[in-house]
Amino acid sequence: MSKQFDVVVIGGGPGGYIAAIRAAQLGFNTACIDEWKNAKNGPAPGGTCTNVGCIPSKALLQSSEHYEHAGHAFAEHGIEVKGLGLNLGQMLARKDNVVKQNNEGILYLFKKNKVTFFHGRGSFVKGDANAYEINVAGATEETITAKHIIVATGSNPRALPGTPFDEKLILSNTGALAIEAVPAKLGVIGAGVIGLEMGSVWRRLGSDVSVLEALPTFLGAVDDQIAKEAAKLFTKQGLKVSLGVTIGAITAGKNDVTVEYVDAAGAAQKVVYDKLIVSIGRTPNTIGLNAEGVGLQLDERGFIAVDADCKTNLPNVWAVGDVVRGPMLAHKAEEEGVAVAERIAGQHGHVNFNTIPWVIYTSPEIAWVGKTEQQLKADGVAYKAGTFPFLANGRARALGDTSGMVKFLADAKTDEILGVHIVGPMASELISEAVVAMEFRASAEDIARICHAHPSLSEATKEAALAVDKRSLNF
Ligand code: FAD
Ligand code: NAI
């Protein structure tokens, strides 16, 4: 007799493990299946995010920022560093240890919440609205059953056609997080989130980094004014970004990679890099799930087709996270996971797609929520804008990081906040206030009238809200 559960979650990334915990909290007998293996072939739940995404990239961003500060910023504070050295092995080992702590944390949470964990690949065998049979292929093989299935199988890096990742010279995010010696010349194809974050890490550690981007605009999804400011700051730091390129042949040699491309002016270019990161987006992962076998519908781009509530075409089968439409973000996956568990319990789970924050963890960080100025213009919405530079913020001066600004966009008539955009220190933390404000449909005036601690970076947020009404106090 196969093991029976109320809910089986396939995939243990942020979408899956959070869905499993919430389902267990709601009283369901829940299992979560995840196939990710650590270096010792043991379980490593947490998905892309924990193993080769959010967590290790932030660990390396932090370490490389410390290194850069020690080399360049400490002197201004009167701290003299002599004989500064880089122990890349230790930096990578620390990153691996941070990942391990997160893997173990999830296994602990499963135990605490009485979620049964299976290490292996889950695939549909057969089923209907009453029960689905799921095969689990790990060290052993078994079949488990449940009435409700949540698919959270995530995404994979997209390779350039004809240029598979070898993770030695041509790197996806996995290889980019584990380069064993700082490459003298690093090429990056795609100036998106991964390209900029990983490009920053290796530039800070000493690489000469060139980023090749197909689109003619830099960070097209970001508010124009913020993207322009970020481009200026990144260029000053030495990050070279070429826009409007067409990538041609990529040839891997013994120890280097040659990239041929046509630049924005139409000139043919040929550059040799020590390593090449390809970060041109990600594709949904349904490999080995046997979706076709049970008639689970995918859309034309390979995502599992779901409605607004994450319901698939099969009764009692749900899908969340990177494997479904919407932004490929860990917190979006988590919110969907919680909402689905609550819907299974007959509650009204809810995800507000208008208030999902985005953060790019470069230095300075870029963070935003809501509409950009170019979107409001395109939608014909009448709006007011207010900006405040960190240059005029006392805490930023004390920190020694006055780059960037906070920008508010508010409805011209009602003053409701429509978007908040930040490039500057700790933008990832500052954006939360804007998210809360927008969830409660606050006006710019609301933020402007709230007392913010002094001196704090958050005063720049208040000042930008005041600027919407042209009454900044410190600028
Ligand atoms: P995943 O995290 O991909 O997890 C899916 C899991 O399912 C994996 O463990 C996989 O092995 C497993 N699986 C797949 N198929 C099966 C199967 N058939 N049986 C069993 N298990 C299976 N997002 C942010 O919000 N903030 C960030 O800072 C951030 N940084 C990132 C940095 C990088 C370099 C990358 C690549 C991504 C980053 N992301 C970030 C995106 C984030 O990682 C994803 O949005 C998030 O992991 C999606 O969660 P998920 O649960 O949908 O899928
Ligand atoms: P991306 O979508 O952010 O950026 C891909 C870039 O590559 C785009 O600018 C695109 O125009 C460009 N591109 C596509 N094809 C190209 C080609 N042939 N030649 C040159 N350029 C090309 O994707 P990325 O950086 O791979 O990251 C994937 C996803 O992972 C992100 O969209 C995001 O959802 C998630 N992520 C989130 C992070 C965060 O929240 N801080 C960090 C890293 C990743």
Describe the structure.
With 475 residues, this protein is of the alpha/beta class. The protein has 3 domains: 3-157 and 283-351, FAD/NAD(P)-binding domain, CATH 3.50.50.60; 170-280, FAD/NAD(P)-binding domain; 355-468, Enolase-like, domain 1 (2-Layer Sandwich). The chain has 14 helices and 21 strands. The strands form 5 sheets. Strands 1-2-3-4-5 form a 5-stranded mixed barrel. Strand 12 and strand 13 form a beta hairpin. The longest helix is centred in the N-terminal third of the chain and has 25 residues, at 88-112. The protein binds flavin-adenine dinucleotide and 1,4-dihydronicotinamide adenine dinucleotide. Flavin-adenine dinucleotide binds at residues 10-16, 33-36, 47-49, 53-54, 57, 121-123, 152-155, 173, 194, 285, 288-289, 321-323, 328-331, 333, 361.
Side by side, the strands of the main sheet go 1-2-3-4-5
Q: Helical region count?
A: 14
Strand content: 25-35%
- What is the CATH superfamily of the largest domain? FAD/NAD(P)-binding domain
Percent of residues in helices: 25-40%
What ligand species are in this complex? flavin-adenine dinucleotide, 1,4-dihydronicotinamide adenine dinucleotide
For the residues shown, what is the average pLDDT?
A: 97
- The tally of strands reads 21
Which keywords apply here?
475 residues; 3 domains; alpha/beta; globular; binds 1,4-dihydronicotinamide adenine dinucleotide; five-stranded mixed β-barrel; FAD/NAD(P)-binding domain; binds flavin-adenine dinucleotide; Enolase-like, domain 1
